[in-house]
Design brief:
Distance between the termini: 60 Å
Helix content: over 70%
Radius of gyration: 47 Å
Number of helices: 19
Shape: rod-shaped
């Protein structure tokens, strides 16, 4: 039933009760004086008083009643709306959101056991994964690409600014050269170069370059010379010579090229650490790197590729990301179930977080309640409350009428008791 219609019916019932008391009272005024007549009149009179008093109390909540001296105490909900909001906010804060109550509630709920039990169900972990996948997909949809790109550029610039290229490179090289580690790295490089030179594709590449050189620099001679044969032989000679040199370097730890490599690395480290001009060049390189269009475009392209891949994966029924989330949630549930100490640690962390966050959370909720109630339209609020509890308030009027009549009848009997007793004697 519509609340407004139900309220109107309740108001009519309360009014009929009051009118019935009035009719009975008026009727007794024209009856012969008798104990029963007086008793009925007293009950009806008290019923009218009770009904009218409760009518005034109920109506005073919702509208102004123009009775001299009392009008300023009516229309309570509209006049006291802001005070009602302040009181409600204070009540919620003091009775529900105080730190001891929040901590006690968390301790009673035993959250670690609840989380463990919940994550123990595959259906729950699957639903959790589905929710997180939808959230992630929604976040990607609403993200502003321009803001993301700007954020990536700022993050990249900040990272480059904080990077001391000279000192960082010097520290890396220091680590690599400690205990001859750079020589071991050189040996691996030499092995790789020897293998590379011995591959047919490498020799074919060298041969082709020799032929190209003959054609471009000696075109007339190239026409009468066996270019292909010269290219193949030259490639073999170069590969053999370089391979022999690399093998000598690898076999001789005191080889002059190794020593030159040591001196070059040591000189580079020294310049990185102490050469202002070299360091200035590196700083200039950092500045150029920050403004490099190609680098920014490359990083932005990486973001776009990653975002597209994630969106495609999230849209699939067999999403890899969703499967990873499901697996991670199931693993967490298994670990919590297996480790009592882990559950205790989780409970302790939650309690500690609650103690630290409860005051701020209470302030936020309190201010939210206060601001929300202050922002409500007073007339609308009064009407909504009347529709919500008005029927019960009308039953208070009916009860006031009936209880008033009962009390009036009892008081009349008590008042007439001496007269009745004297007649009995």
């Amino acid at each position: 039933m519509d609340p407004a219609i139900a309220l109107q019916r309740a108001e009519r019932r309360a009014l009929w009760c009051l009118l019935a008391a009035l009719v009975i009272f008026v009727a007794t005024l024209f009856m012969p004086e008798h104990f029963v007549t007086g008793w009925i009149r007293a009950a009806a009179e008290a019923a009218m008083v009770g009904g009218l008093a409760d009518w005034f109390a109920v109506e005073a909540l919702f509208r102004r009643i123009p009775i001299p001296g009392l009008a300023r105490h009516t229309n309570i909900l509209i006049r006291k709306k802001d005070a009602l909001g302040d009181g409600l906010a204070r009540f919620v804060r003091e009775k529900f959101l105080d730190t001891p109550s929040v901590v006690r509630l968390i301790r009673q709920q035993n959250p670690a056991d609840a989380v463990t039990h919940w994550l123990g169900s595959y259906e729950n972990t699957r639903q959790l994964s589905a929710v997180l996948v939808k959230v992630a997909s929604g976040v990607l949809d609403v993200m502003d690409e321009r803001n993301v790109q700007a954020f990536i550029r700022r993050a990249l610039d900040t990272m480059i600014d904080r990077l001391d290229l000279s000192q960082s490179a010097a520290a890396i090289l220091d680590t690599l050269t400690r205990d001859g580690r750079h020589q071991a790295l050189l040996d691996e490089t030499l092995d790789y170069l020897v293998e590379l030179l011995n591959e047919p594709q490498t020799r074919e590449f060298i041969s082709a370059r020799i032929v190209d050189w003959l054609k471009s620099d000696h075109p007339k001679k190239e026409k009468v010379l066996p270019s292909e044969w010269i290219g193949n032989k030259g490639s073999d000679m170069i590969s053999a010579a370089v391979t022999r040199l690399l093998a000598q370097m690898e076999a001789d730890e005191s080889h002059q090229l190794r020593q030159a490599f040591d001196r070059a690395v040591a000189g580079l480290i020294e310049r990185l650490k102490h050469d202002p001009d070299f360091q200035a060049k590196l700083d200039t390189f950092k500045t150029q790197l920050k403004g490099d269009t190609a680098l920014n475009a490359y990083v932005g392209g990486l973001w776009n590729e990653w975002r597209s891949w994630v969106k495609r994966d999230l849209a699939r029924d067999d999403s890899l990301i969703g499967a990873k989330i499901t697996g991670a949630a199931a693993w967490m549930g298994q670990e919590l179930a297996r480790s009592d100490s882990l559950r205790k640690a989780l409970d302790a962390q939650l309690l500690d977080a609650a103690e630290r966050m409860a005051p701020g959370f209470a302030d936020f909720v309190t201010e939210h309640i206060r601001a929300t109630v202050h922002g409500w339209n007073a007339e609308h609020l009064s009407q909504q409350i009347r529709l919500s509890v008005g029927q019960d308030l009308q039953y208070i009027r009916i009860n006031g009428t009936l209880v008033g009549g009962l009390i009036g009848a009892v008081l009349y009997v008590i008042a007439q008791a001496p007269v009745l007793l004297s007649r009995g004697h």
